[in-house]
Amino acid sequence: VIVIKVNLRIFFFFLLFVFSIILLCFAFFFFSPLSLVNNYSTQINCKKDYIKVDLNLNDSTNSYPDIYLENLKDYPVKDCQAIKEGNRRSFRFNLKQFHQCGLTKSKNLLTGLTTYYHRIVLDHLNNTQEFVYFNCTYKSLPKKHHIVKRDLLPEDFVEEELVHFKTDFELTDTLVQQAPEPEVLMQIKQNNEVVTGNLTIVSGTPLLMEIKLNEESAKIYGLKANFLEVGNTLELNETILFNGCTVDPYLFDNFNLTENEYLLAKFRAFKFPDSSYVQFRANVQICLNKCQPTQCSNGQTAYGRRRRRELRPQAYEISLNTLLQVKDQTDNDDNKAIHEELQKHLKDLRVKNLFLKQ
């Protein structure tokens, strides 16, 4: 009997201990300023012409002093900044100009589904960050088709039986349905460190542009860069990569495939006279396995647009972009010479683009 009483007492204290732990976890989850659930709620509206994201902050003490799009902190374009309305922070993106605020557009070439996505950063008072990922998926409208009336066939007509073999396109369709949707990241690096949008780079600085798939997608898909445009925050846009090949190798080299299956290109930091921001807009296509390289006119091999004889079907077409903040530095003769050479090539790039448009 004594043994039973001791066991019951131990069991009672154990239950009390467990109940106390549950109460502490409940209080921390619902009343801690770090709680993601209690601090804000998110509402995403996917409209035909725009995407609207609302963050309703539940914390009146303003735990998030800065809320902005990833890599666009202090970006001067008002359309890319959060609109403040009391405890609400809202973003509205025009889909016709999705590049403006760094949205990525992913089009599934087999299903016709198009997805736009981005991330919002919330800086916390305790120097931590939280991220809100949002996306909207749209389905393309079916093309109009016509029904052609077929003539009557004779009663003794026997249609020839056809043996059907699966084509590469059908196999691609099957694999893409089973495989995850690829995620593509484009980033700029200096000395193997990622350059963020709020870091200013001196013009002429050697940099690297890296385009890569996430680890899961890289096992299934391959990359190729078709086009790359450079522009400012206004209306100026120039093509610097055309059909997979560089237009000016002094400013921007061809993309090469690394051992880690990344696309990597060397380039020099440059800017346009009327803006300190340079936006790079890439058109990247995703194919199964590896993409065949392109032989450019300068004799180099680039992982750009596929050759005409390559019939391998494409699975996705990705449009993505990144920003670089650049300043000119002409405090000595060497910097002046670099600045003048860059400006000369930018003028030549504009002339070459006139021929490309023709």
UniProtKB/TrEMBL annotation:
Membrane-spanning ranges: 12-31
InterPro entries: Celegans_DevNeuronal_Protein, ZP_dom
GO biological process, one term: anatomical structure morphogenesis
Cross-referenced PROSITE patterns: ZP_2 (PS51034)
Keywords, sorted A to Z: Membrane, Transmembrane, Transmembrane helix
Domain annotation ZP: ranges: 45-303
Coiled coil feature spans: none
Protein name as catalogued: ZP domain-containing protein
Lineage start: Eukaryota, Metazoa, Ecdysozoa, Arthropoda, Hexapoda
